[in-house]
């Protein structure tokens, strides 16, 4: 894809700070550095988001996450944790439409990354939870 910033980074048309590369994926530092070491892992094949993955691409991309995470842990012994985030589509905060996985090292609860989940459990009694689970289960191939 000619207008994709990540494709340009993968093709070395735009400089980056590489962390890992093989034939199928490229990992590089996110320019925002939300926390020290914030890394993006991208498939070299242009796909917009997770909805365009097949099983092989998912295995390829997500199997690299532990490898990079362990390298980050060794590089930054002060790292206390790690968030792995994959945003898909604009409503889910995807801002670059080439699929990517964020690896965000965490050093303390007071660092610059926040992630919260609302507790809407009161809105979903057991019967509704069953309906939701069944609807998804019926579509899994």
Descriptive overview:
The chain has helices spanning 5-10, 55-62, 65-75, 126-139; strands at 18-21, 25-29, 39-43, 81-85, 101-106. The protein has 141 residues and is α+β, with helices and mostly antiparallel strands. A five-stranded antiparallel β-sheet has the order 1-2-3-5-4, with helices on one face. The longest helix has 14 residues, at 126-139. It is globular, with a radius of gyration of 17 Å. It starts with a helix and ends with a helix.
Short description:
By secondary structure, the chain is of the alpha+beta class.
- Under CATH at level 1, the class stands as Alpha Beta
Looking at the overall shape, the CATH architecture is 2-Layer Sandwich
Tell me the number of structural domains.
Answer: 1
Summarize the helix and strand pattern as letters: HEEEHHEEH
Query: What is the strand content?
Result: 15-25%
Low-pLDDT residue spans? none
How would a crystallographer describe the biggest sheet? 5 strands, antiparallel
State the secondary-structure class: alpha+beta
CA gyration radius, whole angstroms: 17 Å
Strand order of the largest sheet: 1-2-3-5-4
Pfam families: HIT
InterPro entries: HINT, Histidine_triad_CS, Histidine_triad_HIT, HIT-like, HIT-like_sf
Active site: 100 (tele-amp-histidine intermediate)
Motif (Histidine triad motif): 98-102
């Amino acid at each position: 894809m000619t207008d994709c910033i990540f494709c340009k980074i993968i093709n070395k048309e735009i400089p980056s700070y590489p962390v890992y590369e093989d034939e199928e994926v490229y990992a590089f530092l996110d320019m925002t550095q939300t926390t020290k070491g914030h890394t993006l892992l991208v498939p070299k094949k242009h796909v917009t988001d997770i909805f365009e993955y097949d099983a092989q691409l998912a295995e390829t991309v997500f199997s690299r996450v532990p490898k990079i995470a362990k390298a980050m842990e060794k590089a930054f012994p002060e790292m206390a944790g790690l968030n792995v985030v994959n945003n898909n589509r604009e409503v889910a905060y995807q801002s670059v439409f080439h699929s990517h996985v964020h690896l965000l090292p965490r050093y303390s609860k007071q660092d610059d990354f926040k992630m919260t989940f609302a507790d809407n459990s009161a809105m979903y009694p057991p019967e509704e939870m069953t309906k939701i689970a069944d609807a998804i289960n019926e579509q899994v191939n």
